[in-house]
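<purpose> Linking amino acid order to shape
<body> The protein record starts here
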Amino acid sequence: MPTYLSVDAPTVTATCDVDPPVLRIALSGELDMSSARLVSLLLEFPVDGTDTVILDLRDLSFCDVAGLNALLSLRAHHLSEGRAVEIAQPTPAVRRVLAVLDHEVHGSALEARSGGGTCPSATRTGPG
């Protein structure tokens, strides 16, 4: 079973890394209408033994509505499988788009793993 995957599209790169119990998905570039389908490929990555997904968005410079919908689908999939979903280090531009999720945003992947958030009005999504 692979524990690392990197996928490139014209405007975005996605990497997945499993270190049970955490699946870390890092996106870099621009997640837009031309690249949002890439996120659906990530659903095929084996995630046995994970209970938390960290979306590391520190290098994602842009996200439009198609990208947001892709992130929502990814989030819904993992929540339906019983995994908590944490968002770490979004850029200011991406943070504004994510505000519609009313989802806790973390300053780092380490902070996400420990459950400490930087957005005071948000709540954690998932089991527990």
The longest helix spans residues 65-80. The chain is about 25% helix and 35% strand. The longest strand covers residues 52-63. Residues 14 and 27 are 5 Å apart (CA to CA).
